[in-house]
Amino acid sequence: MSDTPKTTETATEVAEEQGPMFSDLGLPENLLRVLDDMGYKKPSPIQAQAIPPLLEGKDVLGLAQTGTGKTAAFALPILARTDAASRTPQVLVLAPTRELAMQVAKACEDYAKYTPGMKVAAVYGGQDYGTQIRAIRGGAQWIVGTPGRIMDHLKKGSLSLTDIKAVILDEADEMLRMGFIDDVDWILGHAPKERQVALFSATMPKQIKHIASTHLNNPIEIKIESKTATASTIEQRYWFVGGAHKNDALLRITEVEDCDATMVFVRTKQATEEVADFMKANGVKCEALNGDIPQAQRERVVDKLKKGTLDMIVATDVAARGLDVERISHVINYDIPFDAESYVHRIGRTGRAGRSGKAIMFVRGRERRMLSTIERTTRQRIEEMPLPTAKDVNAVRRERFKATVEGTIGNPQAVMFKEMINELVTDKELDVVEIASALAHLAQNGIPLFLNENERARQPQRERTEREDRGDRPQRERAPRKSPGDVSTKAMPLKDSPDVDMVRFRMEVGYQDGVKPGNIVGAIANEADLESKFIGHIEIFDDFSMVDLPDGMPETVMSKLKATRICGQPLHLQVADGAKPVNRKPPSGRPAGGNRRPGNGDRRPGGRSGGGDRRPRRDS
Ligand code: ADP
Ligand code: MG
Predict the structure, then answer these.
(1) What is the Cα–Cα distance from 164 to 57, expressed in whole angstroms?
(2) Tens of pLDDT along 476-487?
(3) Which of 162, 202, 427, 436 is the most interior residue, by most CB within 10 Å?
(4) Is domain 484-614 annotated with CATH 3.30.70.100?
């Protein structure tokens, strides 16, 4: 992977100095051959440390963050131990999201390229059971999936753990965060006693330690010192999208920032063209770069950027792969990347060769979750930046205009006009300043040089700043938000325990943060050590949620809950305004509908029945 930026610390950038080679780790020839094909030169630290014990059949507890190469760390040794001739499930890999499950399944298939007969079945929610059952029955030795769906298959009898020799928990802390930890526990509890377990996690909350101490047998503990995944020479900021179109914002930002060359990342090929057209129309030397553009032409575009005849490229991730241009001073994430790893790759296009670089990301309300995921995995804070004002832009334009004029003086092409100007001065007795102003006006070709500074500042009309939302600052008084008249602050009695006094609480996380009922149940059940059946009615709104909990929870538990985060957001749990413990007299029968909202009203806390994947899922 020669395209890996030098300045990042992903697995692809493996310690070049020392350390073993893959061939020193005891891996069989058919796997070494794949690594050679894939261009892996040396094992990453987690691979160097985890492969030998896993090959010996030992349990491993690995603490390592994203991008350290965990997949190969477990896939290679466990593949070496899998019997391809036996067509029953032997390896179970649990991953927190369908995306990760698919990604791991694909990687395992790749690593098994020269292992005839080895099959990997991916099993996750949102796909029909039939396809998955066929894959399992089709002789897959490896089952890679999300805990919820795996458990469903186990309960349906469409998957059996009888011959399982190894279980891998990938990104265990993420599974915890997503409310899967009980499922993981259950699955491990149903796996054969004589099996190998590898648990990987970026952090070690106590619930993960608990899983490790319950289900791992004398594990080899490996800790990869977490380095920031992104280069410290890159200054990272984001603009919270609102009040202005992204195109206008891009133009303003690149004008005000002292950009040399700029790399703009968008999601689709079409967007590369649209954004590039807009920038071109606004006088920026800009081109699109996407997979539809023939290779030769793509190379020309990159060449132009290198030479400076081009100042901006708008690209998709794929098209920008391998791009190495030293003068890129700015990376703009016009569309938020799909995952933290591609963020690291994208911003690695700048800050090269020891230079400093700047990365700016446009973040929409519903994308804040990805922002915090990125901050979490890169362990680097991304600062919010305001959109440059018209005044800022005009100040820059003013200076640039003057500099351009100054820089043109003495230009041989300009010199030929001297005689004519002289004639205007002497024959028409015109003032040079008047003449120059008229020429400048002509040169503008009808396009105003300045933005209208009196236009109402179209800043995002948010009630709270992003940072306040994320609770990173000491809490200020909350600006009044939309006070939805339909939000009831009265708790509803529990269906199964109507005698328990309930109180309605408000939490400062909502749909915008990607919260699903499962996350709330999972987080509260874990943090408060509360049986999920005591977690009552849940209602999720755009930027907050309501949950009913038993009255009189101990203060220690409450303060823990207040500090708990869901989807990266602190809950700031507090009693909903004016809420009083609900009357213990249960109404006869449950209020039909009540103030429930479709979508989450039917949740039964802790309810396990029902098909489909009702689990929270990352959708970005
Ligand atoms: P993690 O699971 O720790 O986030 P992955 O296993 O997804 O990391 O690996 C991250 C990237 O690094 C993948 O693109 C993978 O192909 C690549 N990679 C992994 N190990 C190596 C290696 N030893 N040399 C080069 N690239 C590697
Ligand atoms: Mg991984």
Answers:
(1) 13
(2) 323 333 334 557
(3) 202
(4) no
pLDDT for residue 50 is more than 90 = yes
Query: Under CATH, what is the fold of the domain 234-386?
Result: Rossmann fold (3.40.50)
CA–CA distance, 519 with 514 (Å, rounded to integer): 9
Look at the domain 11-223 and name its fold. Rossmann fold (3.40.50)
Q: Which pLDDT belongs to residue 221?
A: 96
DSSP track, 491-532 = ----SS-TTS-EEEEEES--GGGT--HHHHHHHHHHHTT--G
**CB 70 less than 6 A from any atom of ligand 1:** yes
Percent of the chain with pLDDT over 90: 46
Ligand nearest to the CA of 46: 1
Instruction: Identify how many contiguous H helices and E strands the chain contains and give both numbers.
Output: 21, 20
Q: Which of 317, 319, 303, 389 is nearest to 347 (CA)?
A: 317
List, by residue range, all CATH 3.40.50.300 domains of the chain. Answer: 11-223, 234-386
Q: What is the mean pLDDT of the chain?
A: 81
Determine the pLDDT at residue 354.
Answer: 60
Helix axes of 432-444 and 390-408: crossing angle, nearest 10 degrees: 120
- Asked if residue 40 has its Cβ within 6 Å of ligand 1, the reply is yes
Spatial contact of 73 and 157, defined as CB atoms under 8 Å apart = no
Each residue's pLDDT tens digit, 361-410: 999 988 888 898 888 877 778 999 999 988 999 999 999 899 989 998 88
Structure tokens at 501: 């006094």
List pLDDT tens digits, range 122-180.
999 888 899 999 999 999 999 999 999 999 999 999 999 999 999 999 999 888 877 88
pTM: 0.47
| Residue 47 in contact with ligand 1 by CB distance below 6 A | yes
| Residue ranges matching CATH 3.30.70.330 in the chain | 484-614
Paired tokens of 475: 């809490």
Query: What pLDDT shows up at residue 228?
Result: 43
Q: Ligand 1: which of 1, 32, 65, 97 to mutate, most ligand atoms within 8 Å of CB?
A: 1
Q: Is 75 near ligand 1, meaning CB less than 6 Å away?
A: no
Among 387, 357, 375, 254, smallest CA distance to 314 is for 254
User: What angle is formed at CA 213 by the lines to CA 211 and CA 218, rounded to 5 degrees?
Assistant: 130
Higher pLDDT residue, 528 or 135?
135
Size of the chain in residues: 620
